[in-house]
Design goal:
The complex is a heterodimer. Chain A is built from 11 helices and no strands. Chain A is mainly alpha-helical. The radius of gyration of chain A is 22 Å and the shape is flat. The mean pLDDT of chain A is 92. Chain B has a single domain, classed as MetI-like fold (Orthogonal Bundle), CATH 1.10.3720. Chain B is flat, with a radius of gyration of 22 Å. Classes of the chains: A mainly alpha, B mainly alpha.
Chain lengths: 238, 241
């Protein structure tokens, strides 16, 4: 008996006995999708925010259109556009040797989630950087710091504290939104649950999935509270 | 892709009318969900602030659960769960073949989620209203319900508006999920069109453009609404627009 068979036995749930391992594998895929896309999205989002704030005007306008486009359309629509839409260009992908990438629903979901969350995180980070008083930047320059040094050592550490909570919210939103990956034949936690339900017609499997999602979200929420407490311990609470 | 633009046109073999109908369904479900979700959210917010520990406990559990599980999961639980439960109940008294309409299921599921998110906004707005306002209302001899309706609610809207605007934007995009329970919204029509014509790129790009148009109009609308609702507060905090 594998470890993932145990919960079903303990709870005496037949459907969980039969599909426990599929659910566990699905949970792994969900975590992979979310962790990779949100981390990549954070890096890209930071770059986009900096371009929007400090870059040339035309680049700022382009970043603005990018964020508007991806924040103004549903993730499901973007995912279908990438998976089915770009899949339509199969001969082209085969010519450039990228078909192996766009053939896989996992990679398609990863790309879609990354560009989607990058747009949201760019807005969060832009707002956070803008919220830092201008005098901080000027003070750093007056002390002889280079622009980049001022940004890295003075502005960003302060901005990240402001951005911490909204970024945590974005992570939670991505965990929940990642369930749409199940609609492009990917067996993430939601996909495994749908499979289990369609074969067993046992509703309780949805409740077990709900508990798993809730647990992930609660863990992140607690973790973020701890992080915030630690990072803001020098700030006077008003 | 561009050689097949007639497929989304309104002529022979074009999907234009179908897409337009889908857009209508999307807007209708979003608009139908809004009052239900916002009212339920306000009720949850009032519970969260009430003196009754059971009500507070219920509000906490409600918001934690429905903010924590994916909307897709809520949708499935409502659609299949209610269906199966009601079917079992009805079979007991000899009625068969009950099925819940996907529009109703979608509206209820999205409304429940919207209530969870909007209750946070309502709580924040309720907290921002000074205690003296209620006390003044009481001193004027207004009843509790009158104080809420005549004194608190009008001031609430201005503070809550930006948050509720965000809730609306999220709701608008979440409606795309109802296509999985066979409600014929934009996404559903786009899926059917793309599988019929083998032009997914064209159809999903069109769907994206329609959603984007809705979002842009909403952004514009809420900006105006916020400006209007805060016109008495233009100088507040030194911010001028």
């Amino acid at each position: 008996m594998r470890w993932c068979d145990h919960p079903g036995f303990w709870l005496g749930s037949e459907v969980l006995q039969n599909y426990g391992c599929r659910m566990a594998a699905g949970l792994g895929i969900t975590l992979q999708l979310v962790v990779i896309s949100v981390s990549l999205g954070c890096i890209i989002g930071l770059g986009l925010a900096l371009v929007r704030l400090y870059g040339p005007r035309w680049a700022g306008v382009m970043v603005g259109s990018y964020t508007t486009l991806f924040r103004g359309t549903p993730l499901l629509c973007q995912l279908f556009l990438v998976y089915y839409g770009l899949g339509q260009l199969r001969p082209f992908w085969q010519d450039v040797g990228l078909w192996w990438f766009f053939r896989e629903p996992f990679y398609c979901a990863l790309v879609t989630f990354t560009i989607n969350t990058a747009a949201y995180q760019a807005e969060v980070l832009r707002g956070a950087i803008q919220s830092i008083a201008r005098g901080q930047f000027e003070g750093a320059l007056a002390l002889g710091l280079h622009r980049w040094a001022a940004l890295r050592h003075v502005i960003l550490p302060q901005a990240m504290i402001v951005a911490l909570r909204p970024l945590g919210n974005e992570l939670i939103v991505m965990i929940k939104s990642s369930s749409v990956a199940s609609l492009v034949t990917l067996f993430d936690l939601m996909g495994a649950t749908r499979l289990a339900f369609s074969r067993s017609f046992d509703l309780s499997i949805y409740l077990y999935a709900a508990i798993l999602y809730l647990a992930m979200v609660e863990i992140i929420r607690r973790l973020w509270d701890l992080m915030e407490k630690r990072l803001t311990r020098h700030v006077v609470m008003r | 892709m561009f050689s097949n633009l007639h497929l989304i046109g309104f002529g022979d073999g074009g999907w234009g009318w179908a897409l337009l109908q889908g857009a209508g369904v999307t807007i209708s479900i979003a608009l139908a969900t809004l009052p239900f979700g916002l009212a339920l959210g306000l009720a949850i917010a009032l519970m969260a602030r009430s003196g009754n520990p059971v009500a507070r406990w219920f509000a906490t559990v409600y918001t934690t659960v429905f903010r924590g599980i994916p909307e897709l999961l809520t949708l499935y639980i409502i659609y299949f769960g209610v269906q199966i439960l009601v079917q079992r109940g009805l079979e007991g008294i000899g009625i068969k073949g009950f099925s819940i309409h996907p529009f109703v299921a979608g509206m209820v599921a999205l409304g429940i989620v919207l209530a969870a998110f909007s209750s946070e906004v309502w709580v924040g707005a309720l907290n921002s209203i000074h205690k003296g306002q209620r006390e003044a209302g009481a001193a004027l001899g207004l009843s509790k319900a009158q104080i809420f309706r005549l004194v608190v609610l009008p001031q609430l809207m201005r503070v809550a508006l930006p948050g509720l605007g965000n809730n609306w934007m999220v709701l608008l995009k979440e409606t795309s999920l109802v296509s999985v329970i066979t409600l014929q919204d934009i996404m559903f029509i786009a899926q059917r069109g793309s599988s019929n014509t083998k032009e997914p790129l064209l159809f999903f790009a069109t769907a994206a453009i329609i959603y984007l148009a809705f979002s842009l109009v909403s952004w514009w609308f809420f900006e105006r609404l916020e400006r209007r609702s805060s016109r008495g507060h233009a100088a507040f905090g030194g911010q001028t627009r």
